[in-house]
Amino acid sequence: MSIKNIKHKHGTPNHILIKEEDLMIAQIEKTLNSTSNPQIIGRNGEIPLLKFFKRYLPFTLRAETGHFLAPSGTLSPQLDIIILDSRYPLLAENEDGSVLAMLHSVISVIEVKTNITSNDMKKMWDDSKKVMLLASEIPSYGQAGQWGAIMSYGFAYKCANKLNTLEDKYIQFACPKITSLDIYLLRLHPSDQVQSKNIGAVLHFEPIDEEDEDYEDSLDGYIPTCRACYNPLSDLYYEIIQNSYYTLGSRDISFSEIGAHVMDYLSWSTCSWDDYFKMKEMEKGT
Prior knowledge:
By secondary structure, the chain is of the alpha/beta class.
């Protein structure tokens, strides 16, 4: 009896994750055919990818939706998906499943679009800059292009515009020196597809090597790139895993340091007996 070899080879589809993509697309199509409410569509776009990461991520990482809190007390914008260092405790978990996490635990953030348009590109870059501005309260977390910094991703199930239009807007509003933003497009616009294949793409800014310093299309030392993919979900998963561990390795945070970081967010709620008796006296007075 022959033994089946299912090792994923470079430049080929990952057949396991192709099936995961197909399931996601089916769920999105069902939502789009059942409602026109943008909030429902948006939330139902986040859920399939969030559930995928909850199933597939190793226990050292966790995927959640919600906000993070900076040590200063500033709250982040609502984030579709946050990849966290699972060694850190949550500050809150709400009934809808959303969480409040410590900035120290944040590794990367993902903004999810059901049907991305060229108009989304500016907001995605702006949102990524907001995250990095808050992250700069911990200097190494807010330095784009450095291991240890928070990484931003975009993810879209479908494309409302052709790839060249999306790519032009991605480059137009880019600020790779301030923040990273790789955008994974699960399914290209129908006019960009090839027969019998479902093709996606990844938009990315690559740092310039020293020998490429005079590259004419560079922006602040980065070159815009676009690569076609058989299944972008596989590549996103690969990148999240790999970069998360490189980031954790670069931060090199010990359990003792985590214990100290907790004190930046939580404090003892000790009430002095003097305050207690004052409150009792005030109650009597009323």
